[in-house]
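#struct-help
A.M.: can someone run this one for me? Single chain, 196 residues.
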Amino acid sequence: MTSILLAIVIGAAFGAVLDRIGASNPNWIGRMLNLTNLHLMKTILLAIGIGSALMFGGQMLGLVDVGHMSVKAAYAGVFIGGLMLGAGWAVAGYCPGTGVVAAASGRKDALFFIAGGLLGAAAYMVTYPTWKASGLLDSFAGGKVTLGTVPSSKFDGLTALPGDVLGLVLGLAFIVIAFALPDNLVGNRAIAQPAE
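D.P.: on it. Structure tokens below:
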């Protein structure tokens, strides 16, 4: 029961942060994708960078157990699904998480997005045997692998580079990029506050 309560509290806090930075507003997503307002992109890069630096730095210091690391298997369906998710995010202005946050904040269009996502998931479940038979779900490049080799993990590395160091360096690079990016790359539109 404690785990469920903790998950609810963390989920609510994460949702509040997503709403506050504008990730639940499709207009902000559109501005980010057409490069007229990079506030949200900079926030996403900063969050990924800090998370990566803390996780891999924590693993190097022995503060984070490598056994908790999970890696998604590499297969063609993941890449196709990622492209579909990106296209849907661009068209709808929501990804699954931000759609739920937008619905919780009162956006009625997000309810239609969620319904469409559930229908899409149901269609995938019904047609799963066909997708499985197509070979799109067959692992390649070793299946569950990491870019670098992470000591004491159960996953192989695609390269002999030390995975912890690589993850830390990439995380720090994302942080630097987040601060180095200008507010926009197209036009001179003024940056408004994210919450509307």
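A.M.: thanks! DSSP finds seven helices and two strands in the chain.
D.P.: also worth noting: Residues 2-180 form one domain.
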